[in-house]
Amino acid sequence: MASPDEQFPTATYEEKMKMMAQAHMSEVDQKRSVENLIGFCEEYCGKCPTYEGTGETALGFCTIGKSSIIQERKGCLCAQCPISRTMSLRWDHYCVQGKAMELSETE
After folding, report:
1. Is there a domain that residue 98 lies in?
2. Vertex 31, ends 58 and 7: CA angle to 5°?
3. How far apart are the C-alpha atoms of 18 and 71, rounded to whole Å?
4. pLDDT tens-digit readout, 39-74
5. Is 77 inside a domain boundary?
6. For residues 53 and 102, what is the distance between their CA atoms, to the nearest angstrom?
7. How many domains is the chain partitioned into structurally?
8. Is 79 inside any structural domain?
9. In a domain? residue 16
10. DSSP line for 37-71
11. How far, in whole angstroms, is CA 9 from its chain's centroid?
């Protein structure tokens, strides 16, 4: 049987979230993981046509959920983001639709 590390690259988003929950990350590791996420978010969310010019300052909508400021879809960089690929995210426009966990639960 393959180890979780070997299974991770081909797992679905839901399987990856379950693996991560079972890994029991420490609070310090969780905080570090979120800090790493924000670096990617500045590069992708922060430069997205839907985000730019809205006055929104939050980032990481795939994790935190939809924006209360962004209303209009103009374009989307979500699919290009390394987080989408790494976590097998299959949605887009998280800033308007909501976080991945919520979208997964509505399928």
Report:
1. yes
2. 100
3. 31
4. 888 989 999 999 999 999 999 999 899 999 999 999
5. yes
6. 26
7. 1
8. yes
9. no
10. HHHHHHHHGGG-TTTTTS------HHHH---SS--
11. 16
Return the structure tokens found at 89.
Answer: 């995210």
| Three-state secondary-structure class, residue 95 | helix
Take residue 80 and report the two structure tokens written for it: 């290009």
Give dist(CA 50, CA 94) in Å, integer.
Answer: 10
Residue in the block written with tokens 């670096």? 39
Tokens of 26: 């420490």
Structure tokens at 50: 């839907």
Task: List C-alpha distances in Å: 101 to 43, 54, 94.
Answer: 22, 25, 11
Task: Record the tokens describing residue 85, joined without a space.
Answer: 């690929």
The pTM for the full model equals: 0.84
User: Residue 81: which domain range?
Assistant: 39-107
